[in-house]
Specification:
By secondary structure, the protein is mostly helical. The chain contains 22 helices and two strands. The protein has helices at about 5-15, 15-35, 35-45, 50-55, 55-70, 80-100, 105-135, 140-160, 185-195, 220-230, 230-240, 255-260, 265, 275-280, 280-285, 290-320, 330-355, 360-380, 385-400, 400-410, 420-445, 450-500, and strands at about 170, 215. It has a two-stranded antiparallel ribbon with strand order 1-2. It starts with 5 loop residues before the first helix and ends with a helix.
Length: about 500
Amino acid sequence: MKLVDERIWSLFKSWSNQTLTYWSVFFSFGLCVAFLGPTILDLRCQTQSTLEQITWVFFSQQFFLLVGSCLGGLFKKTLMSSLSALLSSTLIISFVFAIIPLCHHVVLLSVAMGLAGKAMGVIDTIGNLQLVKLYQKDSAIFLQALHFFIGLGALVSPLVADPFLADDSCVLGANLTTNSSSSSDLEHLRNSLAGHGAVLRNTSQYPLYTEGVVITRISYAFWIMALINLPVPAAVLTLMYHERLVSCSSSSPRLLSRDPGSTPAVASGQGHRDIFNCFGPVRLRGQPATFFILHALGGAIVFITDGIIGSYAGFVYTYAVSPPLLMGHKKAGCLDSIFWASITAGRLSFIYLSYRYPAPVLLTISLVGLILVQCLLMIFYTSCVFLFIGTCVLGLCISSVFPSTLAFIEDMLDYKGSATTVLVMSASTGEVMLQLLVGSVIHNQGSYSFLLCSTITSFIGFYLFLLLLYTCRIHKNHQTDISKYMDMKEKQETPDVQMTE
């Protein structure tokens, strides 16, 4: 039995240049996602700032990622504008990696991370949009692969940074001696700060200097990542040359002859507009209420599931080192890496599963599995072994929710393009907002509330999915009724035309 049939393979070969380029661009996205957490203490030393000040770079990255997600929809009308935006975004990421070692003030570092976040948001929106536009009803399998490359990049950047992280204090005090914080204390701090929404508590016990001689070697890690990322903009530029979108290749672009969306609707600019046109007054006329409800429910589902990913990655370490588990710092520090590795493995496996099963089936399995794992984690909350097992299974279950939801919603809405932008924006917002919410709850109620919050949001997500299925049925019936009405109208008008002739 063949893993992929000839039709899917033929589609991939037809659009392999664009597909591989979008996948490589998402690898660049993944590099930016995961490097900040492990390197945050070394960046604190480099900028000679306090812990409270350095955590603002997390906010800067996440906020501008959301801004970039919104702006990404403005560049999708033509292949030229999309690839130009991707080229500039990937170059910005390499540029930011290269200049981070030169940012010796926390404000400059925040500006640099804001630029990187904006580039990440543009990549996120355009990459998803273009793959949906290329493959349409067959996009699910390729979207799963696209998001696999985020996980791959997120695994690479911490591995690059790890050899250059400081083992002890990277700022020598006025007497040119290291402070009293041990390597174990700094490892605990680094793991605690890995979550973007982490709430800083009891940091006064770690006497970290802000003035003195900086001895960090983290600059080499960022320069290496800048070099690793350089082939990505080169790949985008190569694709632009191949598609004859640069002046030195040809005066006649290949966009119209090769664009898979060259049906009359897409070629005339009606199929894939930016979000403002999609929800403009002209587009709203004649749209049923289910059109908007599907956008809202799809956005709410990915808001919750991406929020769970962000909050779990951010606070599983804090939960593990707190009572009743009281896990060791090194052992608990592995949980975040295991979680991201399982998400990456899950996306790899769902590439094949997306080919075998429709998106609603995969979403049902993922969301039911998510609820079961969360409930079992609450039941066996005193078991360190089950926390590791549950973390692995949780990552596998939640890994495919976003690409499956995106493929499902776009299919229901006949690939109008607006759903992709809405879902990307919702996912980015959920990752920020739920981390802040869960962090606040943990601060006020204790670490056990971390699992309770995740479980409650999982149930809400599954309930919204059931509403989504029900709305999809109503939307299909409405579309069928419209088609029947139009057919009857055409049949009634045809005899009148013949009699007139």
